Amino acid sequence: MRVLVVGSGAREHAILWKLAQSPRNPELFAVPGNAGTAGIATNLPIAVTDLDALIGAAGEYRIDLTIVGPELPLTAGIVDRFREAGLRIFGPTQAAARIEGSKSFARGVMRDAGAPTPAFAVFDDAGAAREYVRSQGAPIVIKADGLAAGKGVVVAQGVDEALEAVDDAMVGRAFGASGERVVIEQCLVGQELSVFCFTDGEYVSPLVPACDYKRVFDGDQGPNTGGMGGYSPPPWWDAAMERQIRETCIEPVIREMARQRSPFTGVLYGGLMLTDEGPFIIEFNARLGDPEAQLILPRMKNDLLDVVEAALDGTLPSMDLRWSDECAVGVVLVPGGYPGAHETGKRIEGLLEAGRDAVILHAGTALSDGGTLVTGGSRTMTVVGRGVKMADARAHAYVAAEAVTFEGKHYRTDIASFAAV
Ligand code: AMP
Ligand code: GLY
Predict the structure, then answer these.
(1) DSSP annotation string for 230-265
(2) What's the pTM?
(3) Residue to probe by mutation, ligand 2, list 269, 272, 415, most atoms within 8 Å of CB
(4) Whose CA is nearest to atom 5 of ligand 2?
(5) Fewest CB within a 10 Å sphere: which of 117, 123, 268, 349?
(6) Mind listing the pLDDT tens digit for each residue in 21-72?
């Protein structure tokens, strides 16, 4: 069987790493992949949004199943196009991916589903949006409606900051068309949590949780990033919480999507805030998270290939999908200066040693002309430590984070610090 994974980050390396353990021995392909995926898959140099080229490659390489990592190809309609071409693909349709691609659509579905959402209002007019901000006061959250590479959200502590965020998005067009419409929300306070399920559009698999760290520096200082690390499961997660979140936040939304005739098939990612009044939904994503995939896939007891096929075949309800009790801690290594401008092409060493303690999942890595491993753009890799105890998982991750060397290497030292020994 030939399986293609779309994407080039550590999330996609994690998907391929998990597929490589399948007893069914699939032949693996990555688009475009990275230097790490090249070790277990054939990398095909195609852009993830070049749908025509992707369909061509799936035919040429006789791909039996495609799994999509990032959101952009999903919102661009890769699933619809592949299905039209008679190709098997795992992920939501373009209509269903709007749950991530349009924050106003997502809030509407949550409201119609009766799922716990903060108070919100949607604006296409900057004047009306400003007036609403003044009437509500701060703190308040301003969101560009469309995809903005994780940069379209401002949690404003003051009214002036909120008004500025409205103007940046709607007048200054900081996010292009994505910010022509904004969603303004009540600010939720609490502990953030990501949960993931596999779904066939009807049945929701047992949820698996993870927590991630978004700011670049220790103590949640500095700018937001694509994710600097995380852990799974949180020590306070239990069966009652799983059930409450599944029954209030996830299942009603899956039912509502089906009712609206855009059933969601794939991985649904719930970003939640655990508040004093219970769990509230911050947002939904239409895919696995990064770095969360790197934390949860090592904990999946089943063969990922079986799980994906069960979701596509509608046999997920009879599958015993299970997650191990083992803990995982992921630390993301980035080039100095990230998420701002940073140098690339720096020689990476120490992987063999690091690999003894942790799973090494590449992201921005490349092979130079001479065949040495060097840094590419953006985040470099995630090192994932595992252990029966969180403290052991954490220790393994940090031994590996130190063992990998490249000029300018930066990582947070406080990932899962509650488990520090
Ligand atoms: P998003 O791009 O939707 O993931 O939002 C980025 C971050 O903004 C989230 O991870 C939260 O930390 C924060 N955020 C988004 N919406 C809210 C909200 N309504 N209340 C408080 N924080 C929020
Ligand atoms: N963990 C954030 C994301 O995948 O969007």
Answers:
(1) EEES-TT--HHHHHHHIIIIIHHHHHHHHHTT----
(2) 0.97
(3) 269
(4) 289
(5) 349
(6) 999 999 999 999 999 999 999 999 999 999 999 999 999 999 999 999 999 9
